[in-house]
Amino acid sequence: MTHEHSALDGTGKPSPHEVADILTERIRSGRLRAGERMPTQETLADEFGVERRAIRQALDLLRDAGLLTAGVRGAPARITPPREGEASTEPQQTAAGLRPRVLEAFRSRHVTIDAICLTAESLNLALADPLQLMRSGQVTPESVTVRLLLPSRDLDLAFPRPAEDAADERKVHEHWLSLRNSHGQVLRSSLRALRTTRGIDVDVTLKALPFTPPVKLYLLNGSEALFAYYTVKKREEQIDDTPTVIYDALGSDSLLFAFERAGEARDESFVVQSQAWFDGLWGTLASDITLAG
Prior knowledge:
This protein is an alpha+beta fold.
């Protein structure tokens, strides 16, 4: 039994409700993604150390909550995708919370996305669904405008950086830079390709910031702001096949808070001020970016 389970009951087996709570957390956090099959009842029974009857009861609770499809006999149920227009109002990890909101943004005729982040990795992952739907003609916006702010290549980053004196700071910086460049190039090329394949008016512009952003921000269609803190932790990363201890923030794990312009006055003010903050950086401190080398 794993620590995740024993935290619930140090001596006994978890109840169906406790199993359902753990699986619900995995779905909400994105560890179990929409459309994926649930592990088999046998697999879950072995993992949790309970009888299959308890697993069936736990899965029934998930179905009642709308988190699982009905499934068919002999095949595991699948994680239910969010209903159209539905996105959780609860804070979620970026990997889980950004995807459905970006997809919904692409259902508008004119899509605008402004973002500030370290590498654009999370945004690239969130674009996978709308890109697929646009390529197949299921989602057909007339225009897509993306503005992305990333740290400058020559910046002495606050993070990631070596956590030990023996580490090579240059290699850590080059490792981050390769991620920034590759994710930026993929984002730009995949969106611009829609000009020729689908006839969509696409404008993608990236600029460089002279500082390390302590937060990540996504502004969708001028009506929604998604905000998360970069929480810096000490961790080990493979750099040039060498285990290197660094101070870093894993953006996909950051807790994402959503604010809507059509919401309460406080939410609306946050969206307006976030847009003004982004526009101010874009028009003053941001400079041209180079994604090669």
